[in-house]
Amino acid sequence: MAASTALSSSITTFKSSSFQPRASSINPLPSVKFQSISSNNPLISHSVPASKNSTVAPLRSAAASTTPETTKTATTFHGLCYVLGDNIDTDQIIPAEYLTLVPSNPDEYKKLGSYALCGLPSSYQTRFIEPGEFTSKYSIVIGGDNFGCGSSREHAPVALGAAGVLAVVAESYARIFFRNSVSTGEVYPLESEKRICEECKTGDVLTVEIGESRLINHTSGKEYKLKPIGDAGPVIEAGGIFAYARKAGMISAREA
Question: Does an H or E element contain 183, and which?
Answer without folding.
Answer: helix 175-184
